[in-house]
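Exercise: predict the fold of this chain.
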Amino acid sequence: MRLVFAGTPEPAVPALRRLAASDHDIAAVITRRDAPLGRKRVLTPSPVAAAAEELGLHPLRADRLDAEVTERITALRPDLGVIVAYGGLVREPLLSTPVHGWINLHFSLLPRWRGASPVQHALIAGDAQTGASVFQLVPELDAGDVFAERSHPIAEGATAGDLLASLAETGADLLAEVVDAIAAGTAVARPQTGESTYAPKLGDADGVVRWTDAADAVLGRIRGVTPEPGAHTTVDAARLKIHAARAAGSDVPSLEPGRIALHDKAVLVGTGTSPIVLETVQPAGKGAMRAADWWRGLRTTDPVAGS
């Protein structure tokens, strides 16, 4: 089949590579425009754009699938559109342009966590498992019939970045199987069943740690927003990013929510239940460092983390 692929971030790259290695023809790769990254705001291609160039598939850069993009795709006469975390909506008439419409690889077990940030919300909510789903794209958000899904347990301590990397590989294989089945005429999709939940895009405010929450909820939020948008708190009115934290043992002293203390060389912070251990942090204007090193540089003798 002739495919059109739309995707942007790193988790979409395994799917592109998997389809490029198949018997199908990728007629076009659509990705968002180069974006300024880093402190120097260097204009940088998306991971999908870089992978497409490496594969000899010159990407079409567009932040919206507008009339111009629709016209260019229509001229290619695609059999199937494939979208993986592109970052934009597919609307009519583009939605119906390919012979078989569009399918979407989504990193959740639908209908749980429809939306832009399913993995992040699964971790924040404390889910024990998530997965990948391939479904038929329809105008309603992530509501189409599901061709296939594969569950994936959430490992203890996994961050959103860790989980997305694993699901990207699992999902790439699942996606390829569905594309093959559609080509063979054997694909069967089933309606979504169960209660739907939604996972809107996260912003900086979602990374604020609420120390009055239970320890499990605090750790779930930290892992759910790592690496983006990032977990953070304030200490002595200065912003402190938290890159890694873990549960403390049962033999640590109790602390009020937000109270920070050193115990047996571990930096503890109190929560609404038991303390957690900070492992890697990043003070404002500095690089990431071990929490113990940050502690030694503090000037206050009784630090408290605030939200």
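Check your answer against the key: The first strand starts at residue 2 and ends at 7.
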